[in-house]
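<instruction>
Derive structure tokens from the sequence
<entry> Chain with its tokenised backbone below:
===
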Amino acid sequence: MARVRKSLDKTKQILALWKAALYIRLSREDGNDESYSVKNQRQRLNEFLENLMLEEEIQLVDIYIDDGCTGTDSDRENFQRMLEDIDKGIVNCVIVKDLSRLSRNDWECKKYLQHLFVVKDVRFISLELPKLDSYKNPDEVYEMGVSIQSMYNENHCRETSIKVRGTFNMKRKKGEFIGAFAPYGYLKDPDDKHCLIVDNETAPIVQDIFHWFVRDGMSKNGIVKKLIGMGTPCPAAYKRQNGMKYHNPAIVNNEPLWSARSITAILTNQMYLGHMVQGKQKVKSYKVHTRINTPESEWFIVENTHEPIIDKETFDKAQGLMQRDTRTAPQSGQLYTFSGFLRCADCGKSMGRRTSKNLVYYACRTNNTTGLCTRHSIRNDKLESIVLETIQKQIALIDGMAELINDINNAPAPRTVSKRLTASIKLRKQELEKISGISTGLYVDWKNGDITREEYHRMKKEFEEKEQQLKQDIANLEEENKDMAQGVISDNPYFDAFRKYKNICSLDRGIVAELIKVIHIHEGGDVTIDFNFADQHRRIVEFIENNRKELTVVENNKVG
């Protein structure tokens, strides 16, 4: 009787029910090998399973397919679903075409083969490379051949990653677009996916965002509320609505909305200037796909590769405004007229805004928080009046300067040589020569024992930095001198910027942002305004002063 029970137990073991999962994976590192296509993998696995069913009690649970997923990690949707089914006992047999389908990460491959599947009593079958059946030959998963194949699979992935990265970098250097999706406002050219064309549907929205931020003084949150109120789909929603396979794990909402972050991304994207900017992020390694930002020095920037949506002047103003310390009142989407432009004339800190008895005041923030500075308080309406009057005077001055420049240019041979620049260049060259001589003599001082080794290195570094700075100063001055030699005309962007507001009667944030760099508030209520275009203004004034004598001669001749 004992022999009969043993025989029945053995029969039961042979007829164990295998609940099989067919796992299929295809990714970029598989290249153009047709045998790895999803269709071929499915066909091979189905044929194998049908033959196995003739010999063993086995049933198909499901086919798990990860198309377009790398095997260097386990972050694969259907692979994870299969692991969950293994945990639940729904699956106890995994069948793959070859070992690389399970994983191309040597460490993870061995973790599944030699630990997880063993613990969970999961039978693993690989049809080839290498041919494996962990139920029939359990020790095979520990053999050297399997380990070597696993390492080879990983190395193949590493080499492929290097080749792909090299190809992408070559395309980036040539200004060819290689992203999966064109930036919001653009489309991939249907005739050349590496080129961008303007998307007439979304490009106006990009232009509106810049206009609202630069001209209308709206905050990023204010722009967000406006876009949502208008029912404008955000970039992620727009991609989905147009049938693009866009997936962002950070977006949990099925209907993503605009955010201040997306507005910032648009306002800082140089692609809207018509420049191809790529390589702003990279993955940590071919096995760890966490994306990290790269320093700007490593970006690939190729200018003028496609039609711009935003002009450079507007883009630069947006960058300048974002650098300012601007705050809005709760529930308000509008920045105040002077927000980010006011500074205490003594401590240099920004001015705080407060309301008292329906009047708005600005005061030094250092005084408000620490008391280490004086109040520098000024009423908002008084400040507006001062700034408006100053701008009006500046416009009148510009008109006068433009007339003088026209007269000078009509005079014979206007002077275009700047005495100031010539003297500054000469002075800095003399200083550079002196510094170079001292730096050269340091070595002799060290060898003679006049200075220590540490002193020599410290002083040498300091003098080298001074030399570098002087060389840069000389280059800048020579460039300015070169511009000066070309003369000045009344049709100047500096003049145009002010002339636009010739009949100005009131202030808004757009005017302030365009014309003013910073406003200093002095104790007692005095105000100093630094306008933009300071370099151009100085150059024009110098040009007029250099030619004042010739101008006087022309005027005298007119009188005579």
